[in-house]
From TrEMBL:
Enzyme class: oxidoreductase
Residues that bind FAD: 51, 115, 139-141, 309, 315-318
Keywords annotated in UniProt: Disulfide bond, FAD, Flavoprotein, NAD, Nucleotide-binding, Oxidoreductase, Redox-active center
Other observations noted: The active site is a redox-active disulfide bond.
Domain of life: Bacteria
GO terms (BP aspect): 2-oxoglutarate metabolic process
Disulphide bonds in the chain: 42-47
Full protein name: Dihydrolipoyl dehydrogenase
Record-listed E.C. numbers: 1.8.1.4
Classification via PROSITE patterns: PYRIDINE_REDOX_1
Catalysed reactions, as listed in the record: N(6)-[(R)-dihydrolipoyl]-L-lysyl-[protein] + NAD(+) = N(6)-[(R)-lipoyl]-L-lysyl-[protein] + NADH + H(+)
Domain Pyridine nucleotide-disulphide oxidoreductase dimerisation: 343-452
Length: 462
């Protein structure tokens, strides 16, 4: 039996970051991981592999659609799917090996296997029981199931199967127009699949700024994605090579069927804590199955903490990472802090979509007076030169104080641009503060400044 200051269960972005920070703060640390590789959902079957496929398929799209206009002539590339998967897998490998290196560098023990908590202060892995003054549960999430839909990860797949298909399907049906459905739907559409997205609601990406939703859906349609909106998928039927997706339109209850080679189920994720027997430990769950925690991420049992997808809040890698750092600080007797009001969300399609803070709807619901500063990428020289003029930046600021309350971007590099606004919000900046900051020309960032100018006397290039 070994004994540790902290044992973390799960090595995703929440768990591995917590482990590194604990070790940096001088705590004797171990991390339990049941998968063959460190890094959790994000590195193995989430953020990283999906972004590799998005990158590769975007390159193809550029070659097919924009190269000739720039005077780059010649045969456009064809898809070698096996090689694309090899590239994706090598990206995973580099990143997971990187975490292994960081564990060694920080003298963190990787306890290989599935962990359980027989009692507070103890973690069992295989036949060995280890002592831990503190335990952090960072066991993440898994794809939600849908009644009537049986996943085989070959023909009816979750995102995990969709990252590993045997070939590029001719026809793909995506259930759910959320983040996973649109990112992976974009990948396969660019690779030549006929993709139909079936969405229960009347708008894509629920909760997002309605103007962004409309522009985003219009752009994706132009790129070839088909949408069936207001439709609830009732069931799927599958053989070894084909599937049917049955759906009902909400407006008139009419029933329809779509044929596909692959159906991707992307209707959300749920917290994962199988095998931990939390009830026996006296750890309470929320109604949605998340582990209930205090503001300092402690569960109902002293010395047992939880972070990441397994607790409340957006299921995002960077939210899990921030909680990982903060909980380590708390355990080390310092002050750990996460500002949940400034957690950006990014969809890595082309164009990218990014948001942070309040939406117009949340501000209206709160009865808060606000102003809107909007600027189209059509007025941005760099975007126009790069065939990226579709989209806009929208900044929401307090009507009285001018303080920035939120930002919504659809356009080139949105996922990077949003951070300028995040930093401004962290510092309590006004739109004028952003507007008065010199921005290099020609950059996409100028569109953010122009949106900030639009909150005051007006933008220059519009
Ligand atoms: P996880 O990453 O899920 O890690 C939990 C780990 O715990 C797993 O490795 C699991 O094997 C291990 N584990 C569970 N139980 C035990 C046990 N009992 N013993 C030992 N080990 C255990 N987020 C973003 O911010 N950006 C993106 O671009 C993005 N893309 C995504 C794409 C896809 C296809 C998916 C599915 C998700 C994506 N996400 C993205 C979400 C992101 O992956 C998660 O928010 C993030 O991984 C959560 O981190 P975590 O540490 O809480 O849990
Ligand atoms: P999601 O919650 O984003 O979207 C699910 C969609 O499915 C919703 O629009 C919902 O209305 C729809 N839906 C539900 N039931 C349906 C039915 N029966 N028929 C038709 N539509 C139905 O969930 P998603 O896309 O599975 O992603 C899960 C999580 O993974 C996200 O919440 C996100 O946190 C994380 N993620 C983040 C990424 C990023 O940051 N870029 C990328 C991928 C995933």
């Amino acid at each position: 039996m070994s004994s540790y200051d902290v044992i973390i269960i799960g090595s995703g972005p929440g768990g591995y970051v917590a482990a590194i920070r604990c070790a940096q703060l001088g705590l004797k640390t171990a991390c339990v991981e049941g998968r063959e590789k460190l890094g959790g959902t994000c590195l193995n079957v989430g953020c990283i592999p999906s972004k590799a496929l998005l990158h590769a398929s975007h390159m193809l799209h550029e070659a097919e659609h924009n190269f000739a206009e720039m005077g780059l002539k010649g045969k456009s590339p064809s898809v070698d799917w096996k090689q694309m998967l090899t590239y994706k897998n090598s990206t995973i490998e580099t990143n997971t090996k990187g975490i292994e290196f960081l564990f060694k560098k920080n003298k963190i023990d990787w306890l290989k296997g599935w962990g359980t908590i027989p009692e507070a202060g103890k973690v069992k892995v295989g036949d060995e029981v280890h002592e831990a003054k503190n335990i952090i549960i960072a066991t993440g999430s898994e794809a939600s199931s849908l009644p009537g839909v049986e996943v085989d990860e070959k023909v009816v797949v979750t995102s995990t199967g969709a990252l590993e298909l045997g070939k590029v399907p001719k026809k793909m049906v995506v259930i759910g127009a959320g983040v996973i459905g649109l990112e992976l739907g974009s990948v396969y559409s660019r690779l030549g699949s006929e993709v139909t997205v079936v969405e229960f609601l009347d708008a894509i990406t629920p909760g997002m700024d309605p103007e962004v939703q409309k522009t985003f859906q219009r752009t994706l349609k132009k790129q070839g994605l088909n949408f069936v909106m207001g439709a609830a998928v009732q069931k799927t039927e599958a053989t070894k090579t084909k599937a049917k997706a049955h759906y009902k339109l909400r407006k008139d209850d009419s029933e329809h069927v779509l044929d596909a080679d692959v159906v991707l189920v992307a209707t959300g994720r749920k917290p994962y804590h199988d095998g931990l027997d939390l009830e026996a430990l006296g750890i309470r769950l929320t109604k949605r199955g998340q582990i209930a925690v205090t503001k300092e991420w402690q569960t109902d049992v002293k010395g047992i903490y939880a972070i990441g997808d397994v607790i409340e809040g957006p299921m995002l890698a960077h939210k899990a990472e921030d909680e990982g750092m903060a909980v380590a600080e708390v355990i080390a007797g310092k002050h750990g802090h996460v500002n949940y009001g400034v957690i950006p969300g990014v969809i890595y399609t082309h164009p990218e979509v990014a948001n942070v803070g309040e939406t117009e709807q949340t501000l209206k619901d709160a009865g808060r007076a606000y102003k809107v500063g909007k600027f189209s990428f059509m007025g941005n020289a760099r975007a126009k030169a790069n065939f990226a003029g579709d989209g806009f930046v929208k900044i929401l600021a307090d009507k009285e104080t001018d303080r920035i309350l939120g930002c919504h971007i659809i356009g080139p590099g949105a996922g990077d641009l949003i951070h300028e606004v995040c930093v401004a919000m962290e510092f309590g900046a006004s739109a004028q503060d952003l507007a008065m900051t010199c921005h290099a020309h020609p950059t996409y960032s100028e569109a953010v400044r122009e949106a900030a100018l639009a909150c005051g006397d007006g933008p220059i290039h519009m």
